[in-house]
Amino acid sequence: MTKNTNKRIIHHAAQGCADFPPSSLSALESCLSQGALAIEVDTFPTADGHYVLLHDLNLENHTNGSGNAAALKRKDLEILSYKTHGQPTHEKLGFLDEAVGLISQNTSIEKFQLDLKPYGKLDAAALEKLVSLIDPIKTKVQVSSVADWLIRTLHNIEPGLSLGFDPLLYIDKPEDEPRPESVPPFRVGAYGYLDDHPLAARKWGPLKNYFAARAEALMLQAVPGCEWFIRADMLLDSARAGFDWISYLHKNGFSVDAWTLDSSSTAGIDMANELIALGIDEITSNTAKTLAESVAGVFRY
User: Per the confidence metrics, is the pTM higher than 0.85?
Assistant: First the structure.
């Protein structure tokens, strides 16, 4: 298999290097110290306009605190500690300005992906603050989000900023764990996917036509040339049904990342190899290094 050195595996939530809390500064430092090329962390604004490094709005899920993280100020959050594997740690919550400082001192990293969660007050002023915060490392930053409206606003504020769109609020594959009540899509459509669009209300044609129609509609919501982040098994469902979503997006000027595939199972490795054959551009993984080693050197990590 020919090696394409432009392809990377992204360290999801700065994991894959050591057993540190996801998206924490210690996890980020560990990845950087081991030469990671692409790292993703989660962030959203605090009540006073800072950006905390955290995945969930509910503090009880990943910290020793409780309540709504976006409703608190930085001084209230920085005294809290992360949990990992459900257990408390001694590490205090990190913030984006601290992460920018770490990235700015590192020469090896090529991509620092900020997955912007649609929590808190994310108006134009808040997004301008985000752009200002990342300015020292702007050429290495990509901001992704499930909120296409935030991505379009960021594009208007900073047209040259690298952006990413995850369409999971519009179409997604049901999981075993219940979806949070407030997170769309709210229904499973006729084709077996979470989708509130009228196209999913009944079966009007084969599955490949459904995927093609949804891809065409969603493409209108995305910023031209951005990267798409799509659940790996849904990409494969679509390809097996006869619609190659990756090829379609490539033809329309987009790149595609598949998430989240790990090397902890043969199924994950097999899926990665199948997506590589389809031309996937990047893969997001919790086990970036070992996954890269398992797919014949096609991806760098």
Answer: yes
Nearest CA among 257, 262, 249, 245 for reference residue 282 = 257
The residues that bridge with 285 in the sheet, in sequence order, are 11
Average pLDDT, 10 consecutive residues per value, the chain (301 residues) = 63 86 96 94 98 96 96 98 92 98 96 97 97 98 98 98 98 89 94 98 98 98 97 98 98 98 93 96 94 86 87
Q: What angle do CA 45, 46, 50 make, to 5 degrees?
A: 70
Q: CA-CA distance, 262 to 268, in Å (whole number)? A: 5
For residue 4, the model assigns a pLDDT of: 42
Dihedral (Cα; 6, 243, 269, 3), 10-degree rounding: -30
> What's the sign of the alpha-carbon dihedral 231, 232, 233, 234?
positive
The pLDDT tens digits of the residues spanning 86-101 come to 899 999 999 999 999 9
What is the pLDDT, as a whole number, of residue 1? 29
User: What HEC string does the chain produce?
Assistant: CCCCCCCEEEEHHHCCCCCCCCCCHHHHHHHHHCCCCEEEEEEEECCCCCEEECCCCEHHHHECCCCEHHHCCHHHHCCCEEEECCEEEEEECCEHHHHHHHHHCCCCCCEEEEEECCCCCCCHHHHHHHHHHHHHHHHHEEEEECCHHHHHHHHHHCCCCEEEECHHHCCECCCCCCCCCCCCCCCECCCCCECCCHHHCCCCCCHHHHHHHHHHHHHCCCCCCCEEEEEHHHHHHHHHHCCCHHHHHHHCCCEEEEECCCCCCHHHHHHHHHHHHHCCCEEEECCHHHHHHHCCCCCEC
